[in-house]
Amino acid sequence: MCRYAVISYKPHYACFNCQKTFKRRLKKDIKEGKEFTYEAKCPECGQLMANMGFDFESPKKDDARKWEHIKSLYSVGITFHSCGCSGPGYIPNSKEKLQEYFQDLKGKYLKNMDFWRTRTEPTNNRERDRDWDKNWVELGSVTRKHREIIKNQEGIDFWLERVKEIESKINLIK
After folding, report:
1. Is the pLDDT of residue 13 over 60?
2. Least CB-packed of 56, 59, 93, 106 within 10 Å?
3. More confident: 40 or 35
4. What is the Cα–Cα distance from 117 to 132, expressed in whole angstroms?
5. Are the C-beta atoms of residues 115 and 152 closer than 8 Å to each other?
6. C-alpha 124, offset from chain centre
7. 110 and 163 in contact (C-beta within 8 Å)?
């Protein structure tokens, strides 16, 4: 992709106070060099705006319900960042769908914890290789090291931390 195509593709920033959005170029697009920032202040109220990503489409200024939903998405870390090729992925369009999405995710995380609770830990390299051949998806979600022996407690701790993160996000949107 040429440099000029990247420059014209600006991140969108939202001010939840003014219910307005603005596009901002990154400092690295303005100045030569590696310095850049993702922060921007609202030109209307001066408050720090939320970086919503390249693919954000602003609701109408007077649509308070949609603005509140966008604010709740941002508060739990859901934004519209992507390279522009495939979009930002699934974005729940209501508070109820957002809660459902997180509950489904929590269920998947708990299912992963069940795998680690019932898994037989390998005790030698042969068992480790067999374990990797059979359970590479589950093992790979916990470690980047190929064919490493992973203790069940490490897997449980990993998924328990993810469940706690999801529960805190669920509590934020209630």
Report:
1. yes
2. 93
3. 40
4. 17
5. no
6. 37
7. yes
